[in-house]
Every structure is written in structure tokens, then in C-alpha cells.
Amino acid sequence: MLESVDGLIGQNGVRRTVEGFLKQNRLPHTLLFWGPPGVGKFTYSLILASQLNGDRDRIFRNIYPDVMVVFPNFKRVEREEVFQMRRGGRYYKLRDKQGNILIDEIREIKRVSALTPYEGKWKVFIIAQAERMTVEAMNAFLKVLEEPGPENLFILITTDPSLLPETIVSRAVNLRFKSLSQDELKQVLQNMGIEIDEDFLTLSRGVEDYLFLKENVDLVEKVDKLFFNKSPEERLVENPDDLDTEGVLKALLFLLDKKREKLGIEEVERIMDVIKRAYEFLRSNIKPENVMRFLILEV
């Protein structure tokens, strides 16, 4: 069995770096955890908060007064449900849905950060999908970081630091979380009580990838045939209006990673740019069917 530190499998480099900060009593006030989804960024945030304050049980149940977790505001999804989906590896169901982190959330962070800790030694603020902060929220958060306070720790979580302004990235210690190896992912799935299918392990960077693939294998096969075996003209004739646009984007990302060597760097970068633009369109409230047509013509 692989080594597990407080429930985290892998990410030895990140752990060693943070443990070094703790031993020297020089923990930075802002950490940026970045890397693929479902590889331990959120889990390690909670573990670090537990190491600083104790009371792991309440922190992992999101009811500890000195730990504040912020997610994008997803319509018709309660915060507690979002927290549990993130912990359970099923955040992929929400990750690409519309929702932002608004300036009111940052104002609350500013208010709370000015107070002394209620029970623990540190106030810990975990911001998941930090790139979803609005421009106003980003600007307000930047001011918070300029004077973080001696007992505050801010942990930003994102898949890609380039999605955040350089002014914020430069004020944080950047820690990259790598894709899990097959053995690491298998151990994580076993610990979570999730049935393991070897066919999906090779395609998965982490838990979210694995669960998405396992639950959407037919969709992935359809997307593979549609986008990598047919021309744009043939796709238009087929007009696959039964496909979910967000699911198609996720499947494209998985397939792009699998076909990276075959397609070549330039083609992968071209398709990645198309996918990024499609996500931007969805978040700008452009109709999914129009985004799907864009993908059909441009991928």
C-alpha cells in the first residue's frame, strides 16, 4: 500500500515543501495550489488547515469557525452539497457550470480576516476555482493580499495559474499538484470505496477524470468518432443535438490528452484554444447549442 499522510496519496513534492515551511515556522500567507482536477488540491487544503488548527473532524465537515471555504455560486446547488461533491470526487458535475465568486464573498473574507481566530491559531481561507472570481472580486482580493495579517492563510485552488491575474499569482507561493500515477489513483479509489475498472485508469489524471469516464463511456466514444474521425461538414450533416455541450467539452479534453502524441503539439494547442473559447462562451451565457455548433466547425 502506498504511503498516505492524513488521507493524501502522492504529491510528495508539495508535501515536502509545505512541511519545510512549517518546520521553519515560515508558512507563507498565500499558497496557490494548481494542477489537474481530482488529484488532492482540495483535500490537502483541508489537511493543512487541520495541521494548523487541529479539530480535523469539524474542518472536514466544514463547520470549523476559523476555516472558510469559498466556491463559485452555482444555481440551485446548496453550499454544503458543493462541499460534499468536492470531497467525494464528483465536482466534475459542477466544474463547468455557470457560476462566479462575487465581490460580496471577498468582502466577507476581508471582514473575517480582520478578526482574531475564534478557536484555532490561524484563520484559513480556501478559495476553490479561484479563477471564477469576477474582475471586481479579483481587485478586492488583491487588496486583501497586500495586507494579509499575521494569522491568516489564503489557499487558492485552480487547474491553471494562467487563468488568474499575474498580480495575484506573483503574491502566492505556487505549488503544482501532478497527475496521479495509476497505482496512486487505484489506492485513492480503494480508500474512497469506489469500484475500480482498470480500463479507465490509464486515461485518468485523478478521481474526477476516472468517475466522469466511468459514468460517461458512451459519450466519450461518440465524441471520439464525431470529432476525430469526421470532417466539419460531416459533423454538420449528422447534427448531434442529443449531446450535452459541457459533457462534450470534458470528453474532448480527455481524448486530447490521450491523442497528444498522435496529433502533435501544434494541433493539440489549436484544439485547446478552441475548447477554452467554448468554455468562455458558455460562461458568457451563450446558448449551448450555439457553442456546440462552434465546436463542430472549429475542432
Distance N terminus to C terminus?
42 Å
Percent in helix: 40-55%
CATH topology of the largest domain: Rossmann fold
| CATH hierarchy: architecture of the largest domain | 3-Layer(aba) Sandwich
- The CATH superfamily of the largest domain appears as P-loop containing nucleotide triphosphate hydrolases
Order of helices and strands: EEHEHHEHHHEHEHEHHHHHHHHH
Shape label: globular
**Poorly predicted segments:** 1-5
Give the percentage of residues in beta strands. Answer: 5-15%
Rg of Cα set: 20 Å
Q: Could you tell me the mean pLDDT? A: 89
Number of separate structural domains: 2
CATH class categorisation of the largest domain: Alpha Beta
Largest sheet: 5 strands, parallel
Number of contiguous helices = 17
**Classification by helices and strands:** alpha/beta
The side-by-side strand order for the widest beta sheet comes to 4-5-6-3-7
The total of beta strands comes to 7
